[in-house]
Amino acid sequence: MLKHVYRLMIELTNGRWSSVILRRFARSRVSRFVVPSFAKIYKLNQNEMEKALNEYPTLHDLFIRTLKKEVRLVDKNENSVVSPVDAVIEDVGSINETSEMLVKGKSYSIQEMLGSEHTVTKYLNGTYMVLYLSPSHYHRIHSPADGAIVNQWTLGSKSYPVNKMGLKYGVRTLAKNYRMITEVNTASGHIAIVKVGAMFVNSIEKTHQGMHLQKGEEMAYFSFGSTVVLLFEKGIFKLDSSIHTPKDIRIGEKIGVLVKGNSGA
Fold first, then answer.
1. Catalytic residue check, 60
2. DSSP label at 43?
3. Which of the following is catalytic: 60, 86, 208, 223?
4. Which of 62, 113, 135, 233 could potentially form a cystine with 189 if both were Cys, beta carbons 3.0 to 4.6 Å apart?
5. CA dihedral 246, 176, 58, 51 (to 10 degrees)
6. What average pLDDT is seen over the chain?
7. In this predicted structure, what is the pLDDT of residue 17?
8. pTM of this structure
9. DSSP 186-239
10. Torsions phi, psi for 77 (to 5 deg)
11. Active-site residue flag, 75
12. CA nearest 134: which of 69, 53, 70, 199?
């Protein structure tokens, strides 16, 4: 019974006021009483958590939990690109000449997602990857590669569910939801890390300071389950042969390699 309640509250809610109520409840001291049942129902790995379950004063604190440093190892290969999140890789594919990508049978405009005709040009004929975070996942976002931040901006105001049902039946959720975009210039070329908000909450908090990112370094966190879309400039990324969809992935695990030869300028 509780599982269905949580699923309704966390995964399928798309009403403005119900989402506001959920956010207030999750941050309230009263929510600490549901922390144990939430952890049980979503099968959270308590051995990975930096704190014991009884040390989280609210449900929100549990959502944005940190992990023990040794439980996520980052691939050290110089050219490797790693998963920025614990997630399910829902889709991988090519961005076509009209800036569109096809996810769950629906077409999304990269230009609309990025909000910039100038920025989108470099990603035409490049690669996209969609990574979905459920409420059970660790919600912090890390850098997929070494590089310099060249731009960071936010777009959108409302957010709708970005789970499988939201991607299938929602209206351009990946391109219309509130989103924070970080563009990183690597040794091979540009990667856009699009952090997509969910459920009207728009809860993406930046944690990184400075303009340089190291592979595996924390960038931000979601307060609720959401989605990260990676966009790779044309010709710079080769997908790892082990990647198929859907695929469970963890932060630091290799998803591909950067191909040398692009100026990245």
1. no
2. T
3. 86
4. 233
5. 40
6. 82
7. 53
8. 0.83
9. -SS-EEEEEEE--TTT--EEE---SSEE-TT-EEEEESS--EEEEEE-TTSEEE
10. -55, 135
11. no
12. 199
